[in-house]
Amino acid sequence: MSSITMSHKHIPRDEQVALSKLQQAGISFSDLTRDAFINWVSLALLTPGNQTLIFADSLALNHCQGDTLAMETLKRAELVVPRGRSLKVQLQGLGRQLNGEPHVSRLYDELLVEVEHRQLHICFLSASDKEARTMETLLLARYPKLDFSIEIMGGQYRFSTSELAAKLNSADTRIVLSLLPSPQQERLLSRLNLHLKHQLLVGLGSGFTDALSQMQSLNPGILGTLRGWVRSRRHSIVLRPHHWPSYIARSLFQGREKEQQSQINSSLVSSGWRTRQLRTSIAVKAMSFRGKRKLGMIFKRLIDLFGVGAGLLLLSPLLLLVALTIKLTSKGPIFYSQIRVGRFGKRFRMWKFRSMYTDADKRKAELEAQNEMQGGVLFKMKKDPRITPIGRIIRRLSIDELPQLFNVMTGEMSLVGPRPALPQEVETYPVLARARLEVKPGLTGLWQISGRSDLPFDKQVLLDTAYVHTQSTTNDIKLIAKTIPAVISGKGAY
């Protein structure tokens, strides 16, 4: 699609004033295609910390003018998407070439479809009860599996920012979507950004419900089709007498135009059928892929539960013996727990047998300079002075990881998958390494049977990424079988 460029001398005076304000605002608007938008959302959901996405139109910008906090929110947002024809024309007047980006309602739809697919809990902040009721009906009709809640903010907000943030955190809310008018929306997002830790903050604006209603009308059904037919012909059904001359002239012109375009129309119809056939084929293949993936996840969970049951039954004498030995040989608790990052960045508490002295975490800073792991993300030492004598034995045989069978039982981990990372390690991940967060972490995986800690970090990332893209029930069973000789050999375990 060709872009429209406008020189200032052809723009009316009031439009020039608007352009001048827009240029002075210093807001970085993003011109994204549909695929680029989906990729950005996926990456934002995997990135630690808060991310801010705002859909802004010219009316919102006008309301934010003079409000320092609202304008700073727009400037600091990770992504600002222009909404509305008026703003896009103004951006083109400033020399921005918009490459035919999709309508914003399409981006709304892609965002909610992605959230529904990932099964994340989201919360809408609505300005009124009426808007919330309308939106709830539309959401349930279009996204039946969407896990959402709605908070009614009202004209005078009934929540303090800290109270609202606490409520969102207690509900394990991953995405907060605001439907408030500007500049209240931008001010609230700025304050929430200080109280929340790992959320995607989205400013949808007050026009979201109307856009949702329009999206719903794309599948009108028989009654909706009839209403659309009536609307499209309303000009002729309720035509006033003083409109008749222009209506007759327009009808005659359209009649001649239809005769001239008959061959083109027949070509378009045949092309349209071929397009429908192609779309149907793609939809069938996509449905088959989703079905196979869902079935694979079910089998993976069954293998996890069977493996946990068999492992606890066979290894319970060993677990009791190790627990007793740890208690008798060193001071401190039997088990050691850490907060780790799981699938889609969700944090959980991971359990291990304690193999280090109780002051190990405090002494880590003193030993950072002796880190032997290439890449600087993970910390490993072959002769770590913090490890107890019994700890060296159980770490070499990977016995210290066996309490994670309880994490597998609760569904936080799997038997096979990338090893769960610490939050501070995830914060330093390069883009490629974030693919590890697409699946549940596991007790064993490709790099655990390929050298374990002897492998540099970038090699571990490549192996984990390969597992994410090739995982299957058969591969999981093979990896579990290969783990046993890898553990016995003790290669790379320290």
Explain the overall architecture.
The protein is α/β, with parallel strands linked by helices and 494 residues long. The protein folds into 2 domains: 8-215, no CATH class; 288-489, no CATH class. The chain is 54% helix and 10% strand. The strands form 3 sheets. It has a 6-stranded parallel beta sheet with strand order 2-1-6-5-3-4. The model is unreliable at 1-19 and 219-244 (pLDDT under 50).
Instruction: List segments where confidence is low: pLDDT < 50 over at least 5 consecutive residues.
Output: 1-19, 219-244
Instruction: Order the strands across the largest sheet as they lie in space.
Output: 2-1-6-5-3-4
| Major sheet details | 6 strands, parallel
State the domain count: 2
Task: Give the fraction of residues assigned to helices.
Answer: 40-55%
Q: Which sequence of SSEs, written as H and E, runs from N to C? A: HHEHHEHHEHEHEHEHHHHHEEHHHEHEHH
Write down the overall mean pLDDT: 76
| Outline type | globular
Ends: how far apart? 59 Å
State the gist of this model.
The chain contains 20 helices and 10 strands. By secondary structure, the chain is an alpha/beta fold. The model is unreliable at 1-19 and 219-244 (pLDDT under 50).
Features:
two-stranded antiparallel sheet; 494 residues; 54% helix; alpha/beta; 20 helices; globular; 2 domains; 10% strand
SSE inventory with pairings:
Layout: H1 13-25, H2 34-46, E1 51-56, H3 58-64, H4 68-76, E2 79-82, H5 85-93, H6 104-118, E3 122-126, H7 129-142, E4 148-152, H8 161-170, E5 175-178, H9 184-195, E6 200-203, H10 208-216, H11 221-232, H12 234-237, H13 244-260, H14 262-329, E7 335-341, E8 347-353, H15 360-367, H16 389-396, H17 405-409, E9 414-416, H18 423-427, E10 442-444, H19 457-470, H20 473-489
